Amino acid sequence: MEDTSSTFQQGNSSPSSLDFSLCPTAATLIFLPSIYALLFLTALPGNMLSLWVFLRCISTISPTHVYLSHLSISNLLLCLTSPFLAAYYAHGSAWALNDILCQLVLHGITPVLHINIYISLLILTWVALCRFAALIQNTHASRPSTLITLLPHGFFTRLTKVTFANTVCVIVWVVSVGGIVPVTVYYSVNEAMSSTTSTEDEKGECMKVCYSPPVELGGSTSATLTVPVIIMFFVFYLLVLLCYMTVLRHIRRSRRNTPLSTSQNLLTRVFRNIVVIQVVLSVCLLPYHIYKPIFISLAHDQLELAFTYGPEICNSCHPLSTFIELKNCLFLLAALRGSTDPVMYFVLDQKFRHQTLKLLRCNQKNQWRRLIFWSTTSNPKAEQTGEGNVGTATADLSHESVL
């Protein structure tokens, strides 16, 4: 399922490559549905817990909390699409193109997927810039960074303001939704619905199916609009990389002139945070965006087939079936970020880590109390032993909180 590729030429006398069917292997029929189901089971509770901590457990909100809470909302929307994606890859080659589930995937799930990817890209970039601004304002090296002389001081001050973070998040949502939805709507209405043939039905006639070349390849309009999106990704990716290199250089300068102190600890934390963001972008999003232009080029070069298959064309595999499966696997890698983001929050933000551990320990303590209550009520002779267990459990929890 893709809204970013090139359409193929259609002919009257010979079949187009869109007339062929896709031949899904175990990677599509088993691996992708299984991982998307696992994504739903892990990402949904993780992001719900993260959003609860950000909104209800942290009293003092920072710009980083604002960015990460909006990222959690975006990931929750992604989680809700995972079961439908699992069903699409498992049964899409049997669904008719006009089925309700197929239409839901084309018109509803596709926009949510792409919106999530680019909201994540933009928000993680602003988190890196926010951390970088905190470093610039609170630490000093032997010589100021070149960026300090090029950019106005007010720019770094605004990056550390909560109101500015809220404004940025609103703009990110508006830009992402406003840029993605029109393209995906055009793709799902005009390009994906252009399917001609795909597989044979019980009567031996070709029928239009959901998992087909037009759905997975898209058309020329969405391919054209993919170019600025790819450029935008690499611009923001290089911006985060620039922050990483600048912070690393800033740390080296500072350690020559500043003893180990709060400033040095701040340098270490900011460096670690930007490294985490860089790793997330490199592992989850970079492979897909490197492969995207290659895939578009392959689709563009796949010209109209000059030979006729006749009635057997419905059962003939599309030449790009393997490349489409690879594209879908890399897109899964980008979507898996939804289940790893809560772990990233745990590493990035100290308050989030403290409140999450506090919440989990509170739940663990309540479970111990309920367990001891049921054991003492079911066996009155064990009441004294139960009281001893309460004291031991409380002592263990106190020791754990100190650690």
From TrEMBL:
It is found in: Membrane. PANTHER family: G-PROTEIN COUPLED RECEPTOR 82-RELATED. Residues 379-403 are annotated as: Disordered. One of its GO terms (cellular component) is membrane. This is Probable G-protein coupled receptor 82. It comes from the Eukaryota. It comes from Parambassis ranga (Indian glassy fish). Pfam families: 7tm_1 (PF00001). GO terms for molecular function: G protein-coupled receptor activity. Keywords: Membrane, Receptor, Transmembrane, Transmembrane helix. The keyword S-adenosyl-L-methionine does not apply. The keyword Transmembrane helix applies. The gene is gpr82. Residues 46-345 form the G-protein coupled receptors family 1 profile domain. The chain crosses the membrane at residues 35-55, 67-90, 115-136, 164-189, 225-249, 270-291.
